[in-house]
Amino acid sequence: MMGELWSQMGSLMATIVFMYTIFERFFPAHLRDRVQAYVQKFTNHFNPYIQITFPEFSGERLKRSEAYTAIQTYLSANSSQRAKRLKAEVVKDSQTPLVLSMDDNEEITDEFEGVKVWWSANKLSSNPQRYNPFSYYAPSDEKRFYKLTFHKRYRSLITMSYIKHVLEEGKEIEMRNRQLKLYTNNPSSGWYGYKQSKWSHIVFEHPATFKTLAMDQNKKEDILKDLVKFKKGRDYYAKIGKAWKRGYLLYGPPGTGKSTMIAAIANFMNYDVYDLELTAVKDNTELRKLLIETPSKAIIVIEDIDCSLDLTGQRKKGKEEGEDEEPKDPMRRNEEESNKSSKVTLSGLLNFIDGIWSACGGERIIIFTKNYVEKLDPALIRRGRMDKHIEMSYCGYEAFKVLAKNYLDVKSHSLFPTIEELLGETNMAPADVAENLMPKSVDDDVETCLLKLIKALEGAKEEKARKKAEEEEARLKEEKEKAKSTQRVDENKEKIGEDVKENGFH
Q1: Biased composition, Basic and acidic residues: where in the chain (predicted)?
Q2: Residue 415 or residue 488, greater confidence
Q3: What share of the chain is helix, strand, coil (3-state, %, to 5)?
Q4: With left for phi above 0 and alpha for psi between -120 and 50, is residue 297 left, alpha or beta?
């Protein structure tokens, strides 16, 4: 009985294959297309599922589709656990360079808000014999695409919400997995030519995090909340009509951790760092071009801005010089201007930070660092340009405990109270505290390093007391000299009065 059934099935399949071969070979192309269209319409009445394809290339294969790349990244997170056949690809500039994804003609399922969907990776080749050994890409007749299948009753949910979710999640995964980069601006002489660019970069591998940052815990939490609020603020900034950017001013004595703070922010936000060297920028026009070449999700840093260029009150300074000094010879003035290494002005920098050009990209953080607050024009650091001012101060006890955990892996010790007292009486930068805590040999244990720090703090305390005594002595000496000078003036006045009386003029 089963043998007869299989025999009939074999005859039926052979008949179907024969008829299909006759149809493909002898029917004209336009007639085949017409018949296939009618067959498709007929089967659609009985098929409750909808299919959407996402091709790998768009625009006549000139550019790889961003949607295809985002879907591939999204599916790679699920395919390594669900798919039976996988393919491995090496991805540049990624923390996970070996990425596993679905192999061709493989299918996996996904679920969104209780709705089940199917994803399949497909490859279509109309001329498999054609092969070009000199091409780095697949043959032009080979087309890859992802196919999404779902029930037609969920059309609105899938097309309006799910696909958007997949694309956004794919881009977010790609951002999380990529390697951060540290950029610096090239001189304008190298902007043109083959493979030249305005920025050059290296891989950013600084290990600093907010957990290892030597700073008061309350201040760290305040900064973290501000960063999280900014990262989620796309709609808010659009509502208030302001460019999606935020300015941070880091100021404090040398060695207080300003550069470490920048690295911690970059690692927390997962943003690339663009270290802008103002002295290498020729003029304001080049400054704007650099801004245009800076993408979103970036941190633009100008370190030691009080030392980069003379930006200390240029507007007022120019006016005062015009009033007090004689006009310079035009030829001499032009020669002096041409000899300047950079012609970036305060006005140009203000437009770079907060002008109309600052809105040419979103989700940017601009950070200034400097040692002395009073050295910059107030217009440069006002709220709205530098929105948050962060003082990087000398090492306190809370910061010391973080450093002790980082360098010595210790949370408490009998010497901690002594160190706490000394830190309250001295001004020592976190970098100096860290240097004293770092073991210098294999024989240095926790107590040895803490005693070394105590000795350094006591020395700093004595130095501070000595300087204070010298300053007090200088002040008293100055007061005595001033008192003597005043006394001599009074004596001279009395003597002049007596001379006037003796000469009979009184």
Answers
A1: 328-340
A2: 415
A3: 50, 15, 30
A4: left
